[in-house]
Design goal:
By secondary structure, the protein is of the alpha+beta class. It has helices at residues 2-10, 13-21, 40-43, 66-85, 101-107, 160-169, 217-222, 224-230, 233-254, 295-304, 341-360, 383-391, 402-413, 420-426, 431-443, 496-518, 540-548, 560-568; strands at residues 116-134, 137-143, 148-154, 175-184, 190-201, 258-259, 265-266, 278-281, 286-290, 308-316, 328-337, 364-367, 370-373, 379-382, 451-454, 476-481, 484-491, 553-559. Among the domains are: 101-201, OB fold (Dihydrolipoamide Acetyltransferase, E2P) (Beta Barrel), CATH 2.40.50; 234-378 and 449-575, BirA Bifunctional Protein, domain 2 (2-Layer Sandwich). The protein contains 18 helices and 18 strands. α9 packs across α18 (560-568) and α12 packs across α15 (431-443). Residues 238-580 form the Aminoacyl-transfer RNA synthetases class-II family profile domain.
């Protein structure tokens, strides 16, 4: 409160308060400060140029230190009281604006230095992000959704009381509307020569320091709204994200797909192997799961007769958090009747390249210092050949000898018997599982340029059709870019008997892995998602739908968040999700 007393003693608001004591406050009205019409000659008078601001001088309105936060809030609340006491409402209903800041910057860039368009009246609105007072001049920088522009407020065009009000009530962070003519200063700064303004929203909390910005990464994610104010480029990421989603929809529609919606709350968590979130429906008196995939319901649509369907939706998995993983994320899943996984490779290339062209205008993008070429066609290699190329081990040579495959993997990866990696490897129930472990550990991160990894083992692909030429494999691919999985696709399994057997085998494998992992109770270095404590159950309704007959089809899921990461050069998935899930703040 010491800061409040200092402010009250040094501001002219005490005078205003004293004058109110002798007369009743007028009815509430918007704060609209009018300036006298200025002649062209007066407008072109060269103003004193704003000197550079001393970085050591910080006003209370721009300081973001913790110690000052509450005192600044108290000061600004006092200003709200003062405004209302004078009959001004600092939280407006609307503002009629004629231009955005970008429209003004583009439309009047031709003005000469010192020139003013006195016959033009414009109206803008935005947040004050900078404020500088120099004697008879006040400069304010206003930012809206499109950019920034300067407000030029001159004492000679205002009464003394109006000018003092301008200096006393306006803080950085306030949202204001302003009317006036257009002027380019002698320094070449396009400005609105203010004739009147309103405080549309009075900010109570200070913005981060203008020279350092909001640098606390956790706070940036936790208070994304402040992050977007302090770092305007953050908003560009979400504009790009919106453009990517829009372009995906346009692409799907151009190929004749229709968008459908499937349940988020499901009776069985199916379509992937992942730990689900569980909730309880009171009226139905039953547990429900937040979906871990949209796959099984979309396939039901194929059974029902829709031949090309897709869904863009939120997926929820109760697993770990990292720069690549968020418990809720966005995917597109698509299914096309009478096609196979070759069709989905072509569609994946089409979607990604169209999104790149829409956002960058070219097919070469830079990601974290590496140039990525999205020019087609993309590399296509089998999982077996990539592992052999990287390690020299041909996993086909092991046949069904799981122990020999495990021993080769331990030697290759340098895994010690007592390590958590060995526990995971020991839980592998087939050569296919061991192959996948080696692939994920050794190969995956090296797939920087777009690569389709083909023909996964049947043991890890319960929803994919058996390969038509190679026993033990499936017609499945995953798309990798920058060492990250972007997409996953199959020639879809349509045989209901085979599908039931795959699901039952998946449940057995899951239970066996859970038993193996539970033998070691140590939690050191063990992620929560590795406990396999959740149950996997059969989706009987989906199996029933297959028995009515699903046409030959292919399907694919693409991770929209990871695609946006690539196209915005974002290192973490949290950078492309507006409000990511975070740990509880201590």
């Amino acid at each position: 409160m010491e800061a409040l007393r200092v402010w009250m003693a040094s501001s002219n608001l005490l005078g205003f308060a004293a004058s109110r004591a002798t007369k009743a406050a007028p009815a509430a009205r918007p704060l609209r400060l009018h300036v006298r019409s200025c002649s062209r000659a007066a407008a072109t008078t060269k103003p004193p140029s704003p000197p550079p601001q001393d970085r050591r001088r910080r006003s209370a309105s721009s300081s973001s230190s913790t110690s000052d936060r509450e005192s600044i809030r108290a000061i600004r609340l006092k200003k709200v009281e003062e405004l209302r006491g004078k009959g001004y409402e600092p939280y407006a209903y609307k503002w009629d604006r004629t231009h955005t800041t970008k429209e003004l910057q583009d439309g009047y860039t031709h003005l000469e230095n010192g020139e003013v368009c006195a016959d033009v009246v414009v109206s803008i609105a935005g947040r004050i992000v900078a404020r500088r007072a120099f004697g008879k001049l006040v400069f304010m920088t206003v930012r809206d959704d499109t950019g920034t522009i300067q407000l030029y407020c001159e004492k000679d065009s205002l009464t003394e009381e109006q000018f003092e009000q301008l200096k006393a009530f306006i803080d950085i962070g306030d949202i204001i509307g302003a009317n006036g003519s257009i002027k380019k200063t002698e320094k070449g700064e396009l400005s609105v020569y203010v004739k009147n303004f309103e405080i549309l929203t009075k900010s109570l909390l200070p913005l981060p320091d203008k020279y350092h910005g909001l640098t606390d990464v956790d706070k940036r994610y936790r208070q994304r709204y402040v992050d977007m104010i302090a770092n305007p480029e953050v908003a560009d990421v979400f504009r790009t994200r919106a453009k990517v989603v829009s372009e995906i929809r346009k692409t799907m529609e151009s190929f004749g797909f229709i968008e459908v919606e499937t349940p988020v709350l499901q009776g069985t968590a199916g379509g992937a192997e992942a730990r689900p979130f569980i909730t309880h429906h009171n009226s139905l008196q039953r547990d429900l799961y937040l979906r871990i995939a949209t796959e099984l319901h979309l396939k039901r649509m194929l059974v029902g007769g829709l031949e090309k369907v897709y869904e863009i939706g939120r997926i929820f998995r109760n697993e770990g958090i990292s720069t690549r993983h968020n418990p809720e994320f966005t995917t597109i899943e698509m299914y096309e009747a009478y096609s196979d996984y070759e069709s989905m490779m072509n569609l994946a290339e089409e979607i990604v390249t169209r999104c790149a062209m829409a956002t960058h205008g070219k097919l070469r993008v830079h990601y974290q210092g590496t140039e990525i070429s999205l020019e087609r066609p993309w590399r296509r290699e089998t999982m077996h050949s990539l592992v052999k190329e990287a390690t020299g081990i041909d996993f086909n040579s092991f046949g069904e000898d799981v122990e020999s495959a495990k021993n080769a993997a331990r030697a290759l990866l340098g895994i010690k018997t007592e390590s958590s990696e060995n526990i995971s490897l020991q839980a592998c129930s087939s050569v296919g599982h061991v192959l996948n472990e080696v692939f994920e550990t050794v190969v995956e991160s090296s797939l920087v340029q777009p690569t389709f990894v083909l023909d996964y083992p049947v043991e890890i692909s319960p929803l994919a059709k058996p390969h038509r030429r190679y026993a033990g494999l499936t017609e499945r691919f995953e798309l990798f870019i920058c060492g990250r999985e972007i997409g996953n696709a199959f020639s879809e399994l349509t045989d209901p008997i085979d599908q039931r057997g795959r699901f039952e085998n998946q449940i057995k494998q899951h239970n066996a892995k859970r038993a193996t992992m539970n033998k070691v109770k140590t939690t050191e270095g063990k992620d929560e998602e590795d406990d396999f404590s959740y149950e996997v159950t059969l989706d009987e309704d989906f199996l029933t739908s297959l028995e009515y007959g699903m046409p030959p089809a292919s399907g694919m899921g693409l991770g929209i968040d990871r695609l946006v990461m690539l196209l915005t050069n974002s290192a973490s998935i949290r950078d492309v999700i507006a409000f990511p899930v975070l740990k509880i703040q201590q």
